[in-house]
Design goal:
The chain has helices at residues 2-19, 23-26, 34-37, 41-68. It has 69 residues and is mainly α. The protein is extended.
Length: 69
């Protein structure tokens, strides 16, 4: 039974790594390591959501300009 638990733990760890947010790829390089500046996962998720919301707002505004023309 212990052997079955080990593969599931490895899968969970791999999924966790995939879900990890890399701020350096999310925001263009600025000459410093954003992941070291913001090591907290909660902050990383907040910045990721901020970036996503900004993109959604920009798309919405762009669609408004298309309708005006």
């Amino acid at each position: 039974m212990e052997e079955k638990d080990e593969p599931s733990q490895k899968i969970d760890q791999e999924e966790e790594k995939r879900r990890e947010i890399d701020l350096n790829t999310l925001f263009p390089p600025k000459g410093y390591d954003l992941n070291r500046l913001f090591p907290d996962e909660g902050t990383k998720k907040l910045l990721y959501e901020l970036r996503r919301n900004k993109r959604d707002i920009e798309r919405f505004i762009k669609s408004l300009h298309v309708e005006e023309e």
